[in-house]
Design brief:
Order of helices and strands: HHHHEEEEH
Shape: elongated
Radius of gyration: 33 Å
Largest sheet: 2 strands, antiparallel
Number of helices: 5
Helix content: 25-40%
Number of strands: 4
Length: about 140
């Protein structure tokens, strides 16, 4: 019996049908039986709820005999030259597709992807006076 079963046993004291719904589903024969037993009295519903919790325990994961890390790492099983993770869930965090190389636009309007990130190809950026030349906006300090 794991900690989630113990928690369900404590929840059964407050509301006996709830653990039965978690273990067997809302629309099941055990659920209807538990609701009928709760109508007869609190104790029969509680005992039936504890019976369902004991009858359907949570599945524990099997420990590997050579597991020196006590389950803190994920093992990868290799079969037939293909690398397969032991846990075959789809999705996850991050991406598996390779990133595209960065593409930069030169000052003359052509595109290239051989420039490093942040490089300007040797050209010096314009000074502030050159950048605002022709800017006829009125700037005040109000």
């Amino acid at each position: 019996m794991c900690s989630s079963d113990i928690f369900l046993g404590l929840i059964a004291i407050l509301f006996p049908p709830l653990p039965v719904w978690v273990k067997c589903g809302i629309c099941s024969a055990d659920s209807i039986i538990n609701i009928l037993l709760c109508m007869l009295g609190f104790l029969p519903g509680l005992l039936h709820s504890w019976y369902i919790i004991a009858k359907f325990p949570e599945q524990d994961y099997d420990a590997l005999p050579q597991d020196a890390e006590s389950g803190r790492i994920t093992y990868v099983v290799v079969q037939g030259g293909q690398r397969l993770p032991k846990d075959t869930r789809t999705g996850g965090y991050g991406t598996t597709a390779p990133m595209a190389p960065p593409v930069h636009q030169d000052q003359n309007g052509t595109w290239n992807n051989n420039a490093g990130e942040g490089s300007s190809g040797g050209a010096v950026p314009p000074s502030y006076a050159e950048a605002v030349k022709g800017d006829n906006k009125i700037q005040t300090r109000d």
